[in-house]
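Input (structure):
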């Protein structure tokens, strides 16, 4: 299962980085585009770590935290998809 998750993650992130480098090359530069992406990813990881620590410290079971994060991510992706279609 972990091998599949890693492989599918790679299938997602490699083309995404290539797209960002190609589009960023014409605007801010490929390196700057990747740097901004990495900053966003690291901020999101720190935020999720903080939220996870808070949830566990107040007694929410780990499975509940995982399901809650999954629901939040699904709602966020749906909202971004709807917002993107309206633009």
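Output (sequence):
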């Amino acid at each position: 299962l972990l091998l599949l998750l890693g492989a599918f993650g790679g299938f997602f992130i490699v083309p995404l980085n290539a797209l960002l480098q190609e589009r960023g090359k014409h605007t801010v530069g490929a390196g700057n585009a990747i740097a901004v992406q990495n900053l966003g990813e690291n901020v999101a990881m720190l935020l999720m770590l903080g939220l996870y620590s808070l949830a566990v410290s107040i007694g929410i079971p780990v499975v509940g935290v995982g399901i809650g994060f999954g629901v939040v991510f699904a709602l966020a992706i749906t909202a971004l998809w709807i917002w993107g279609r309206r633009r």
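Notes: The CA atoms of residues 13 and 19 lie 10 Å apart. The mean pLDDT is 89.
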